[in-house]
Design brief:
By secondary structure, the chain is α+β, with helices and mostly antiparallel strands. The protein contains three helices and six strands.
Length: 87
């Protein structure tokens, strides 16, 4: 089972319907949507992929297929932006 680890190397600010995050390690700003921010909140420090999927699905009341698809897309981007680690 894979664990997702929140790197805590960024600051975020809410702007209307999106969030601007600053990766403090790279100095780059990124804009994420509300569901992406919610995923980061759900991760907190560390969480299993299965548990994160369940919480995300439950929060948005969506089916497993849609939740998995959205979560996987976000996690790929978050890895690239160095916001999370997966082990």
């Amino acid at each position: 089972m894979k664990n997702i680890i929140h790197k805590r190397n960024f600051s975020s600010v809410k702007l209307k319907d999106s969030f601007v995050i600053l990766n403090e390690d790279t100095g780059h700003y990124h804009v994420i949507n509300e569901s992406s921010n919610k995923i980061l909140e759900l991760i907190q420090n560390q969480i299993s992929y299965t548990e994160l999927l369940q919480k995300f699905k439950s929060y948005y009341e969506i089916d497993n297929y849609r939740a998995k698809q959205d979560l996987d897309i976000f996690l790929q981007k978050a890895l690239k932006l160095k916001l999370v680690d997966i082990n």
